[in-house]
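Re: duplicated header lines in exported structure tokens

Our pipeline writes sequence and tokens for each protein into one text file. With two proteins the header for the second block appears twice in some exports. Here is an export where it did not happen, for reference. First protein block:
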Amino acid sequence: MGVDEWAWRKGYSGCGTILVDLEQGVVADLLPDRSAASFDKWLQEHPGVRIVSRDGDGVYAEGGYSGAPRARQVADRFHLVQNLIRAVQEELAHQRHHLLMPAQELLHTDAAAEATEAVREIVPSQQRGQLASPRQEEIRQQRRQQKMELFGMVKGLHAQGMRAFEIVNATGISRGRVDKWLRLGQCPPQNKMAPRPGMPEYFREELRRFWEQGIQNGKKLLIEIRKLGYIGSYTGLARLLSPWREEKRTAERVTLAAVSPPDAQSHPAVSAKRHVSPQEAAAALSKPKPLLSERQSKIVEFLKRTPDFATLRHLVLSFRSILRGGKVSSLKRWIKEAEAVGIEAMTRFVRHLNKDQAAVENAVE
């Protein structure tokens, strides 16, 4: 018996459960909700199920163990691979600064793939709107930093004489975004929740006024907004000021590029780069070489120059190979290797495997 969640209609948040007879290849039943209790009840009403194939150690594992205690639990290989690739995406999102490739390395490749720019965080939809963890906050800051670098690159290329359509062709950034950025004097801020008193963002206008008056020392700015009622930390203030400092440095570089010839040795010309999303990079890292498209091959060769990416690719491909035809002993060696590399996302993935060890080993068998 295969079991998974089932969406009753597109865009509908509530989920039911679909049960599939994996020997006959037909749907056996649909349950109105996604719960351990309903799956448990169904299994007790249908004795004789020998194998339960399902996702990780969640509600279906709980319902399967209680409803059919003699059945073998199997972590289905689709979800195992999906969870591994999601772990790789999370790690790549944490290392966004490595995902900016020289544009010439991606020329004449799949144009549809090149259009992908905006990257959504790898966070389950039910978690959106909650407070970010320190790691998620760091990823958000890296996204902001990368956006400012792309903004600076667009302005720099324009200062060197490139027109908007040439910048689009060189960088893969959409025409609408390039046109918008060329009209702006500084990188636009991210969308954020409404600030509250006590948050640095609440005093943004006052801080900006002080900043433009030349008060750009963090400690002095802290003194000024303390007078206005700020009770937060210096760290929070420094986080708000960080993009302003980067924008100032970017503007200075753009100004220098505009007044200096492109071949000036003291100020090299801005080079065009293309952003590879964590999703696209993870998909490329998880494919064997013969199955890679031309674009994916170039992405893999570029990313493998960084040791962590070569390690991630090796771990993903070897894990998939074990699932296709390996042994439990090979899986155990893989788990030890994945734990030893010291990559946080892989450590979390292994932790989930160990929590569902018997079912994962059954997947290999």
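Second protein block, exported in the same file:
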Amino acid sequence: MNVVDVQQLTKVYQTGLKRGNIVALNQVTLGIAQGEIFGLLGPNGAGKTSLMKILLGITRATSGEVAVMGLPPSDPTSREKVGFLPENHRFPNHVTGTGLLELTGRLHGMPGPAIQQRIDELLPLVGMERWGSTKIRKYSKGMAQRIGLAQAMMPDPDLLLLDEPTDGVDPVGKIEIRDVLKKIQSSGKSVLLNSHLLSEVESVADRVAILSKGRLVTVDTVKNLTQRQNQFEIHASIGDRLIEIPPEVGKRIAVSANRMIIELKDPESNGMSQIIDDLRHRRIDIYAIVPLKVSLEQSFLEKVGDTSSGGDQIAGRAGF
């Protein structure tokens, strides 16, 4: 079952300006499965925040269908088991971390004993057990992010919406938050993760959606987006021998004494077998054949291209 279903979603912001309205989302269709960590990627103005606001019922779609936990966002019960950490959040400075969690629990209608039990579980989970009685005004940016993650998890949500959750967190803290998200996933819950840190998304997400200028560029697994299906790195005892790849099989991209990168013309053919047979015939030892991978960041740049257009920047400044 999908915890989020988005069908042909369009969001248009009325500007009242001669240059026209701003289309923040344009016919976007995607789904987030139960127990999945789903990454939302895109440059400023891509529509990521607009999508989150629509899922939370903060703003309404112009057209299309949206369901959260099987219910439309206009139904408040759709958010009963949803946790949210916004970007650049602002919590009351005069309360302590524990006080914030108590307030969050009461807002969710949790009984007192359940609130205390949940606080006792969450503070150690996010590494804030020593700082629960400290007022938020004394928190560093990383500590504020940790307590923000705890408040989002307070109602034990089935769906967690996180907007830049590792912003300002030190490297150790990022690893710890990554572990927390994996623990959440292992219990069958889902996470929608919006982050500019593509390396973080790559390390934790199952699938990602790439948005650009309001349009959905692609939805795919991290594995598919980072793997070059027709490029391989062959580790072998090549030495100074000249290796030629028949044009009908593929081409050689790079070669050294102990490795060679090749690109097959058709990865479904027996081209790799021909190359292996040739290397063995020449008594070249083969140690490993590894599919060539790129980072999620490189794949992202290839998908969205140049995103420095004026329209994108206008949407980014407007907070869309």
